[in-house]
Amino acid sequence: MKKLIAILTLTVVSAAAYGVPFTDVFTIIRHYSSNADLHVYDTSYDSANKNVLGSVMSDHFGMMRRYAKLQDENILFDCDDYAFTFKSMVSCYGMMLGENYLCGVLTVKQEKEFAGVPAGGYHALNIMLVNDVLIVVEPQTYEYTPLAEYPNRGNIIGFIL
Ligand SMILES: [Ca+2]
For the whole model, what pTM was predicted? Predict the structure, then answer.
């Protein structure tokens, strides 16, 4: 048992040191969303942890609140803008911490309700690698779930990583 723990620890450490090859990410995404368009811009990615995720959410929420105060309503700032600004915030944390965190924008045919967003029409939200698990994040409510359990995983149109 001790040996198994040591091997598992080494596996996690080596994944953290060298990153996750984009081909592995490709394979996982393809497993759940076989028809989605995939746009991948890096050869490998690092996994964030829950602390980074929490900090990104807190900073993103603060930024949204700060700029929303400047205008009563802007209907053009919608789901895609929330998703791209969230992705940008993750990139800023990656720059600060010297990591290449995986965070992408995904577009989906919203056939089922998720994280407070009702079914119907099309939607944009985020995918992120946290503790070596791909999760789907709703950047308007900050709820998230593993891609494996995301109710619209079969209706994803595209990913920009
Ligand atoms: Ca928009």
Answer: 0.85
**Where along the chain do its domains lie?**
19-160
pLDDT digits (tens, 9 = 90+) for 10-33: 334 344 456 888 888 888 888 888
How many angstroms does the Cα of residue 5 sit away from the middle of ligand 1? 47
> What CATH class has 19-160?
alpha beta
Q: 27 alpha carbon to ligand 1 midpoint, in Å? A: 30
User: Region 58-83: what's the mean pLDDT?
Assistant: 88
Cβ pair 142, 133 in contact under 8 A: no
Cα 84 to Cα 9, 17, 77, 90, 150, distances in angstroms: 34, 27, 11, 10, 20
Q: Could you tell me the distance, in angstroms and rounded to a whole number, from the CA of residue 72 to the centre of ligand 1? A: 16
| Mean pLDDT along residues 88-109 | 97
